[in-house]
Amino acid sequence: TPIEKMTTETAQQEIAHLQTQLINYGVAYYENDEPLVEDHIYDALYARLVALESVFPQFMTPDSPTQNVGGADTKSDLAKVTHPAPMLSLGDVFSLAELEEWDVRTTKSLGFQSAYNLELKIDGLAVALTYEQGKLVQASTRGNGVVGEDVTRNVKTIKSVPQTLTEPLTIEVRGEIYMPKKSFAKLNLQREADGLEPFANPRNAAAGSLRQLDVGITKSRELSAFVYYTAEPEVLGATTQSGALARFASLGLPTNHQNRVIEKMADIADYISEYTAKRDELAYGIDGVVVKVNQLDLQIDLGNTVKIPRWAIAYKFPPEEALTVVRDIEWTV
Ligand code: NAD
């Protein structure tokens, strides 16, 4: 039955069922780092819930997964950190047609066509890094977006995250912690040899390795990072997303260099096909492309919903086979 033709009662039942199911999948994924289903299955159920809730908004409860970032809560033994500003998720789309629709909406809100910065969507977990006078003093996970977990000691074991910036700035920056594919494959071979359950994917391996009370475990896991955001761009003197990335790099922070500024959404097609082809060669997992309004003052004008920024959207690649083999090729960084 098309959603519009469903009875209120059937819709209510399906919505309640999907909410519970997705909350349970979320707990397994975000809190235990052990997903129960593959991402594309989660994504399809999530899209169905979004569609149902948009036709029957009376059943969209505040605890619905569509209204909350990450898992229900952070339950691990790690200390909790309240973020100075919430750490959000991203809206996602699965086709060029949906990207076009997002572009039309954005252009309408702004009143003109904005330039976009395209970035790879790194398959890891979000962290916030706080530097005081250029020194790394705190690192935290996204958690439920409002409260995350303190992983300062863990992050300090990651070689690519500088303990000291090249300038004595006081700033919170955010980015992605990931496990390079090679390290992931090696780790899973070792786990299998040790009779342990292998990690489902590099994202879960990264999260499971970072969120450890025993910092020695994190240290043995070869994690890496890319920084892509700050809520305080004025500290950097940056006015664009692409400019902020360049400033992060000049501070010694690890950044991904595959970003590209485009003047109109149609130009994204080349970037997507290029990285769909290059995806296997990359040293790290990506699950899509993130489109961001490049001018930072326009990002502020567009603002955020409770869960996602209106100035960015993630285009997700179609599902890929699991990566389990160490491949003897040159990785591109
Ligand atoms: P998301 O991971 O799809 O997108 C938001 C995140 O993208 C950000 O928080 C950030 O960490 C990351 N990101 C990577 N590169 C980025 C870049 N260049 N710029 C900005 N952000 C970047 O959203 P989510 O809400 O964390 O989780 C939803 C995802 O998790 C879906 O893909 C879903 O399939 C998966 N999930 C799976 C299960 C499961 O059971 N398999 C359960 C829950 C969630």
From TrEMBL:
Record keyword Ribonucleoprotein present: no
A GO MF label: metal ion binding
Binding site for NAD(+): 39-43, 89-90, 119, 142, 176, 292, 316
Lineage: superkingdom: Bacteria
Key words of the record: DNA damage, DNA repair, DNA replication, Ligase, Magnesium, Manganese, Metal-binding, NAD, Zinc
Gene Ontology biological-process annotations: DNA repair; DNA replication
Active site: 121
GO cellular component assignments: cytosol
Functional description taken from the UniProt entry: DNA ligase that catalyzes the formation of phosphodiester linkages between 5'-phosphoryl and 3'-hydroxyl groups in double-stranded DNA using NAD as a coenzyme and as the energy source for the reaction. It is essential for DNA replication and repair of damaged DNA.
Annotated family: Belongs to the NAD-dependent DNA ligase family. LigA subfamily.
Record-given protein name: DNA ligase
Gene: ligA
Range within the parent protein: 6 to 338 of 681
